[in-house]
TrEMBL record:
It is found in: Mitochondrion. This is Small ribosomal subunit protein uS15m. The keyword Mitochondrion applies. Pfam families: Ribosomal_S15 (PF00312). Residues 245-275 form a coiled coil. One of its GO terms (molecular function) is RNA binding. The lineage of its organism: Eukaryota, Metazoa, Ecdysozoa, Arthropoda, Hexapoda. Its main location: mitochondrion. It comes from Glossina austeni (Savannah tsetse fly). GO terms for cellular component: mitochondrial small ribosomal subunit. SMART domains: Ribosomal_S15 (SM01387).
């Protein structure tokens, strides 16, 4: 590139108007707020609609509920075998048993698909309550994510091979199954602002149309009254000049009928508005 071309290019760059065409700011005062990001462990995303039912802390551990010695034991000794005075995992086992009994096929069913889903659901909800109190517990968070994904795979399998049982288990466990989207779409600010601008313009257009319609409706009664007067005048002039009459009485009566109907509708609408305000 010679010196002439370099000087010409530098002159062109210096005189060219620089236009910024990115990160534009709308003058329509349209505010866009980024949608809230819901974590995968949240019940709104995992599909767990119901919360865990309250458990009596004085209830005995499962292994000692039928113990005859505890029925006559001292209160201090009995408290050692209550759920409220024992580790949390025993309460989780209590919820697992309760959930499994709701869906098991027979009293000894602990390995069917329904029993597995009930066990996982009870554990997931216990973990979710734990994460609500201790949001920084990373170990439980990882376990909860893995368990939710595993339950999704089980539900997907059951949905494919036995849809009636799939619907039944969702109703029993109060779950919502959310299949993954067929196509992922990332939400961006620019695209969202374009959509909001289109909605804003559509609202403006509709507002102007409504205003214009209201103006036309207000002019309907004066227009009909004026049309009736002109038709009567034209008919009378034709009769006086003894020329063919083009305006018949039926035409005038038709306009009068439309005027009376319009006045009645306006009166009914006015009374209705007054009653609603009262």
């Amino acid at each position: 590139m010679n010196a002439y071309n370099i000087s010409r290019l530098s002159f062109k760059i210096a005189t060219q108007q620089i236009v910024r065409n990115y990160a534009f700011k709308s003058d329509l005062k349209i505010k866009w707020v980024r949608p809230e990001k819901i974590p995968s462990i949240d019940p709104r995303k995992s599909g767990d609609c119901a919360k865990l039912p309250p458990v009596d802390p004085k209830e005995l551990i499962r292994e000692f509920r039928k113990s005859k010695e505890l029925e006559t034991a001292d209160e201090m000794v009995r408290s050692l075998f209550e759920l409220g005075n024992n580790p949390k995992y025993l309460t989780t086992n209590h919820y697992r048993d309760a959930f499994i009994k709701e869906v098991q096929r027979h009293p000894l069913d602990y390995g069917s698909m329904e029993a597995k889903l009930a066990r996982m659901t009870a554990t997931i909800r216990c973990f979710q309550e734990h994460m609500a109190q201790h949001p920084r517990d990373k170990m439980v968070k990882v376990q909860l994510k893995e368990l939710i994904e595993k339950r999704k795979k089980f539900l997907k399998y059951l949905r494919r091979w036995d849809y009636r049982r799939f619907e039944w288990i969702l109703e029993k466990l109060d779950l919502i199954y959310k299949p993954p989207p067929a196509k992922f779409h990332w939400i961006t600010r620019k695209e969202s602002l374009k959509k909001l601008t289109d909605i804003h313009c559509e609202k403006l257009r509709q507002a102007k149309l409504d205003e214009y319609r209201k103006t036309l409706e207000e002019q309907q009664i004066p227009f009909l009254e004026d049309a009736i007067k002109k038709l009567e005048f034209v008919r009378q002039e034709q009769l006086d000049l003894d020329i063919p009459v083009t305006v018949t009485l039926e035409n005038i009566d038709d306009y009068k009928k439309r005027l009376n109907e319009l006045k009645e509708l306006r009166e009914e609408a006015k009374l209705k508005n007054e009653n609603e305000q009262l």
